[in-house]
């Protein structure tokens, strides 16, 4: 006979409710991503252009895989790129 105690039943119900919350969280994340990827910015007086012209600019799959695999990323890469763009000196 497979019977649950009251405590086991309560835990199973709590787990089911938490699973539903996680599912709703993923749905809301997807909705936000859909909104974000459709974002536009002004390009001239009456023109608009997409913020993300390529999917890779929105989500870099390869970079995320490298993070998971433990390849170290330079924490100052953004600063170096900014300085290089502005013409500042960068010691690599």
Please name the defining characteristics of this protein.
92 residues, mainly alpha, two-stranded antiparallel sheet, 4 helices, 59% helix, 7% strand, Phage protein
Could you list the spans in which at least 5 consecutive residues all have pLDDT below 50?
Answer: none
Rg: 23 Å
How do the strands of the widest beta sheet line up side by side? 1-2
Number of domains: 1
The proportion of residues forming helix, as a percent range, comes to: 55-70%
What is the overall shape? Answer: elongated
The number of helical runs is 4
What is the N-to-C succession of helices and strands?
HEEHHH
| Amount of beta strand | 5-15%
Distance between the termini: 68 Å
Q: What structural class is derived from the secondary structure elements?
A: mainly alpha
The overall pLDDT average reads 86
Number of β-strand runs: 2
How is the biggest beta sheet arranged? Answer: 2 strands, antiparallel
Instruction: Characterize the quaternary organization of these chains.
Output: single chain
Protein name: Phage protein
Organism: Eubacterium limosum
């Amino acid at each position: 006979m497979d019977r649950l105690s009251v405590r086991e039943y309560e835990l199973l119900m709590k787990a089911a409710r938490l699973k539903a919350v996680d599912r709703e969280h993923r749905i809301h994340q997807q909705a936000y991503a859909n909104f974000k990827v459709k974002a536009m910015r002004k390009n001239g007086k009456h023109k608009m252009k997409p913020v993300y012209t390529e999917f890779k600019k929105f989500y870099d799959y390869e970079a995320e895989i490298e993070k998971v695999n433990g390849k170290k990323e330079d924490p100052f890469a953004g600063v170096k790129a900014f300085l290089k763009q502005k013409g500042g000196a960068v010691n690599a």
